């Protein structure tokens, strides 16, 4: 690694030495127009960087640009139309080269200005090389990647060090029509916006840097670039591991807060003064340093909170902290739970910040809020599962006292659940190919229906399913009374195929409700709990079966008092199974109303 860095520094210095080599223009066929030093103290590419960035051929010779005779042809090909400022630079370039004269018969020549004779010598080259050679400057990886801060912020600091952030000077290069106009720094309303200016040379950031260095009892002189700022090893809070961790966190928090302030002023038209920015820097630096292993179990990190009321600071910046971590979002609901993540006075005095029974993380609080908000939606699925359980219980009992013969075939009552499967197979493609495109035209949503709307449709179909079963039972009992079969435990001559509609409706309700539940729990659950929350839909199935058994027990107990036959006797011809189906239809309708209220007040999770 040392060898490679030395070679890199050597070749970098070597290229800088050769930059002083001047060219004497003859016919201009061997001298590069933009990159060779032939006019002025710098190559034209360095004198006019805005034009050099957008030119197509950066190695084009002088003769190809100017042409052999005057007036010059100016064959400059750019990869896009020039902006107003670039047109002004082009006019300045053309005026500057007005005194150039090409000699078609004279070849181009080199001149070595480091020697008095103008000729190259090893001695002059060695002296120049020793003057320019210096230690290679590499990215301070330990300063960034070894710090205990979120990876998202570490990646951002890497972009800042390499000047890859979307400052105005970078936008001018790539897409000038999208750059800010005029080209000024939004923080100080002066100068051009660049990474070095925003984070080092802006009047607002200079004041904040001085304040940070004064806290470390040091004088600050702005370095040349932000990379130099990271590369220089300041012993701001000492050379110990604790001091280094605290200094790293302070510097990185500084850059992060300044960039957020810049974006807030541009895109949200919101501005904070230097005091508010300083409070944010102190808070984030304290928080990140506190999370580092070097300060584990110590209260020294909170010394940065001098002159700031701790409770006021936590209350002010609690929601700001959530913005920095992906997957977290604070909801202005159940805010009483936020207290679980705030350090109490007793914990602050004792320094016990690691007991999970006393202090929760912000992530744990927000995930609990999500689960609590999802609970009412989940609970409404239990009643639907109780209705779905009738397919294997009361529907079969009803089919056993109906005519099961179709021609020469005898149909087992339990086999009619096949129509539930057929209904699912039918409704899935109908939903995807027909209903979703139609709904998309009205709702404007890619899926046509939201998960909540899809579940609501399924709950409504469950009401229709129970109503259809009740109507079939009413018809069966009327036929049993007409044929005087009430006292006989025999099948009524009503075809079992009349049960198909209720099975078909139940299959449609299953498509809408169960699939909607899976999508809802997966999309709205916390990222770290998606597998667990997806299993909640299976839990509703089991609880629905228990609820179905409970309702059946209660109905049987209440309707058989005082020696009454009851709704569901052994001989269904003497009972009122239709009342039971109407009861489930009524419960399903009430469940639908409760669901509509819960879905109306539910606040969706924005980021998935």
TrEMBL record:
Belongs to the major facilitator superfamily. Proton-dependent oligopeptide transporter (POT/PTR) (TC 2.A.17) family. It comes from the Eukaryota. It is a multi-pass membrane protein. Pfam families: PTR2, zf-RVT. Residues 120-209 form the Reverse transcriptase zinc-binding domain. Its main location: membrane. PANTHER family: OLIGOPEPTIDE TRANSPORTER-RELATED. It is found in: Membrane. This is Protein NRT1/ PTR family 8.3. GO terms for molecular function: transmembrane transporter activity. The keyword Ribonucleoprotein does not apply. The chain crosses the membrane at residues 370-391, 411-431, 452-472, 503-522, 534-559, 579-598.
């Amino acid at each position: 690694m040392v060898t490679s860095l030395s070679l890199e520094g050597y070749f970098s210095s070597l290229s800088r030495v050769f930059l002083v080599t001047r060219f004497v223009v003859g016919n201009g066929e061997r001298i590069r127009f933009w990159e060779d030093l032939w006019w002025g103290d710098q190559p034209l590419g360095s004198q006019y960087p805005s034009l050099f960035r957008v030119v197509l051929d950066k190695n084009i010779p002088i003769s190809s640009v100017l042409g052999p005779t005057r007036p010059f042809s100016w064959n400059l090909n750019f990869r896009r139309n020039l902006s107003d400022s670039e047109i002004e630079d082009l006019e300045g370039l053309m005026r500057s080269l007005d005194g150039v004269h090409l000699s078609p018969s004279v070849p181009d020549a080199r001149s070595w200005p480091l020697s008095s004779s103008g000729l190259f010598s090893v001695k002059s080259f060695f002296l120049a090389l020793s003057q320019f050679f210096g230690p290679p400057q590499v990215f301070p990886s330990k300063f960034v990647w070894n710090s205990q801060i979120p990876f998202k912020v570490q990646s951002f600091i890497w972009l800042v060090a390499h000047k890859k952030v979307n400052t105005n000077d970078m936008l001018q290069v790539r897409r000038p029509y999208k750059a800010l106009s005029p080209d000024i720094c939004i923080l100080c309303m002066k100068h051009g916006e660049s990474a070095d200016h925003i984070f080092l040379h802006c009047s607002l950031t200079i004041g904040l840097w001085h304040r940070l260095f004064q806290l470390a009892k040091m004088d600050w002189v702005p370095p040349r670039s932000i990379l130099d700022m990271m590369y220089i090893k300041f012993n701001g809070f000492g050379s110990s591991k604790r001091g280094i961790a605290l200094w790293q966190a302070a510097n990185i928090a500084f850059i992060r807060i300044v960039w957020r302030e810049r974006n807030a002023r541009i895109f949200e038209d919101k501005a904070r003064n230097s005091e508010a920015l300083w409070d944010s820097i102190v808070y984030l630096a304290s928080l990140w340093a506190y999370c580092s292993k070097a300060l584990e179990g110590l209260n020294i990190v909170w010394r940065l909170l001098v002159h700031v009321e701790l409770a006021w600071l936590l209350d002010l910046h609690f929601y700001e902290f959530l913005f920095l971590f992906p997957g977290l979002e604070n909801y202005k609901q159940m805010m009483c739970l936020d207290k679980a993540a705030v350090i109490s006075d007793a914990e602050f005095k004792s320094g016990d910040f690691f007991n999970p029974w006393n202090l929760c993380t912000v992530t744990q609080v927000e995930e609990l809020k999500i689960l609590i908000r999802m609970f009412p939606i989940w609970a409404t699925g239990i009643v639907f599962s109780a209705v779905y359980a009738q397919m294997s219980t009361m529907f079969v009992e009803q089919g056993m006292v109906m005519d099961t013969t179709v021609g020469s075939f005898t149909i087992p009552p339990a086999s009619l659940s096949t129509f539930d499967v057929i209904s699912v197979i039918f409704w899935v493609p109908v939903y995807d190919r027909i209903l979703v495109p139609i709904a998309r035209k009205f709702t404007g949503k890619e899926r046509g229906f939201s998960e909540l709307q899809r579940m609501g449709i399924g709950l409504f179909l469950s009401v229709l399913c129970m109503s259809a079963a009740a109507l079939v039972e009413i018809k069966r009992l009327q036929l049993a009374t007409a044929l005087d079969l009430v006292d006989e435990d025999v099948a009524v001559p009503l075809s079992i195929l009349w049960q198909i509609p209720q099975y078909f409706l139940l299959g449609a309700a299953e498509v809408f409700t169960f699939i909607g539940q899976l999508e809802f729990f997966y999309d709205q659950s916390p990222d770290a709990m998606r597998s667990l929350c997806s299993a909640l839909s299976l839990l509703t199935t089991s609880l629905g079966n228990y609820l179905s058994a409970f309702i059946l027990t209660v109905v049987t107990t209440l309707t058989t008092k005082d020696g009454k036959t009851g709704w569901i006797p052994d001989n269904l011809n003497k009972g009122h199974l239709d009342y039971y189906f109407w009861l489930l239809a009524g419960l399903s309708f009430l469940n639908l109303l409760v669901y509509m209220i819960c879905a109306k007040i539910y606040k969706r999770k924005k980021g998935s």
